[in-house]
Design goal:
The complex is a heterodimer of chains A (179) and B (293). Chain A has 179 residues and is of the alpha+beta class. Chain A contains 4 helices and 5 strands; from the N terminus they run H-H-H-E-E-H-E-E-E. Chain A has 3 domains: 37 residues; 32 residues; 85 residues, 2-Layer Sandwich (Gyrase A, domain 2). The termini of chain A are far apart. Classes of the chains: A alpha+beta (179), B alpha/beta (293).
Chain lengths: 179, 293
């Protein structure tokens, strides 16, 4: 035989309400913890890539080192190519000086040779030669010889400064080089 | 497994028992008893605080408490209602009839009733009404001290629940709770409470020399109850008599009653077969209330 509770009805209703509120609070708490856990878990998963097998990791490391070596080689090749391109577009000054020295040998004493790039960048070069000779005709002979080499164009003697200094005559020559 | 605390508040003492209810019955976890400083039905605030502190010190865990309804809040009556098969609104009729008999407003009390054994077509019930206002005052004082009151019951019904577990296949069981503040006699037919009564002037005297005379008077009351129960249940089987409360600790009283009733004296035991301290029986009976809010 089950005896009925003699607790007043308003207290029973209040206890039921409290139980209901407690159940909801607990359910919301559990839901909050689960949601928080999922968010934290998702963030951790996003921040850290999944661990790879040891063999695959070694392969990737090896690949990376080989890639590094290839990058170094590529850099060296690029530097070599740049140097080659620069050399290709630049006259051989040593050969040029040898030609000028050979053609002026015994006739003129060269004091300075100035080289400047042309107004159109590196496609042409202008050369100014300053020297002195023992006679007045030798600079003209040098002009003709330089033109005859075919390396120089527009070889001309500048007239103004060609004044004798003692027993020697100074001269100035301008020409251009098209490599 | 639920844990419940029964708190029995009498004018002189407060007794508490905590039990664990399992499939194989209940077992006692903790118990406490304290004397009161006031005789009001509701505990004073300081008494409630003392009780809460005592329970904590005695190892009571936080659990739903069942208290006894204050004596001045309880009214009982025997009523006749239409049979359940009649289709009549029996609950409403019972409430209206109880209010009429007790001269109460219908919203002033909580009603509980149960059918009595009878051989005729009438549906005779015993009803217990508990007034809300004094009960609320009693609960408020306990809840303000931090206790969780989830049930209120008639102490006679609580005794009846405990007596249902008394060993023996007797049809009629009589339990007498004997205290210095008075005596309450409960009569059961199987596990159904037939009635309870508190004979006037039957208080246990502090002087043991008075207990023999007290036992004689109590014996006559119990005999009258047994006769009524036998008449009611039309059974002539021997009845079991249990003495609960402080009276069970009086050797003079128990010897006198044993001489009078012989083997019919049967003290309650726990489901495990251990003898129960008779002073804890009312509190354990309260804790056994099944209908907890």
């Amino acid at each position: 035989m089950i005896h009925e509770n003699l607790l007043p009805a308003h207290r029973i209703a209040r206890r039921k309400l409290h139980r209901c509120i407690n159940a909801w609070v607990m359910a919301l708490g559990i839901l909050g913890v689960l949601t928080g856990g999922l968010i934290v878990g998702a963030n951790i998963t996003k921040a850290r890539p999944p661990a790879m097998p040891a063999g695959l990791t070694q392969d990737i490391e090896l690949g990376r080192s080989q890639l590094g070596m290839l990058e170094v080689q590529l850099e060296q090749l690029q530097r070599a190519r740049d140097a080659y391109e620069r050399a290709e577009s630049t006259p051989r000054w040593d050969r040029l000086l040898q030609v000028i020295a050979r053609e002026s040998a015994g006739r003129a004493q060269l004091k300075s040779i100035q080289i400047a790039s042309g107004s159109d960048g590196q496609s042409s070069w202008s050369v100014s030669i300053h020297g002195s000779t023992s006679d007045a005709q030798s600079p003209n002979v040098l002009v003709a010889r330089l033109e005859a080499t075919g390396l120089f164009s527009n070889v001309r003697r500048r007239s103004a400064p060609g004044l004798p200094t003692g027993d020697r005559t100074e001269f100035f020559l301008d020409c251009s080089i098209n490599p | 497994m639920p844990i419940r605390t029964g708190i029995d508040i009498s004018p002189t003492t407060v007794t508490a028992a905590q039990i664990k209810i399992g499939k194989s019955g209940w077992s006692l976890l903790a118990s406490a008893r304290m004397s009161r400083s006031s005789e009001d039905s509701a505990l004073e605030a300081h008494e409630a605080r003392r009780l809460e502190s005592l329970l904590f010190r005695r190892g009571f865990t936080s659990a739903a408490c069942v208290i006894n309804a204050p004596a001045d809040a309880l009214t009982s009556a025997t009523m006749e209602l239409p049979p359940a098969t009649s289709g009549a609104p029996i609950d409403k009729l019972a409430r209206a009839e109880f209010a009429r008999r007790s001269q109460l407003e219908q919203g002033d009390f909580v009603l509980s009733y149960w059918g009595l054994p009878n051989n005729g077509p009438a549906n005779q019930v015993m009803a217990v009404g508990c007034l809300i206002e004094p009960t609320d005052a009693c609960i408020d004082s306990l809840e303000s001290a931090g206790l969780n009151v989830a049930g209120v019951d008639d102490p006679a019904r609580a005794m009846g629940r405990l007596l249902s577990g008394v060993p023996g296949a007797t049809t009629v069981r009589v339990g007498a709770r004997v205290e210095a503040s008075g005596t309450c006699i409960v009569v059961l037919h199987h596990s159904t409470m037939l009635y309870s009564r508190s004979p006037i002037g039957l208080e246990l005297h502090p002087d043991p020399s008075e207990h023999a005379e007290f036992a004689s008077r109590l014996g006559r009351e119990i005999e009258a109850c047994v006769s009524f129960a036998r008449h009611r249940s039309r059974s002539h089987a021997p009845a079991a008599v249990s003495i609960l409360g402080e009276g069970a600790h009086s050797s003079t009283l128990m010897q006198s009653l044993s001489r009078k009733f012989g083997d019919s004296i049967s003290q309650p035991v726990s489901p495990s077969g251990d003898q129960i301290d008779a002073t804890l029986a009312p509190a354990i009976g309260l804790a056994l209330l099944e209908d907890i809010a």
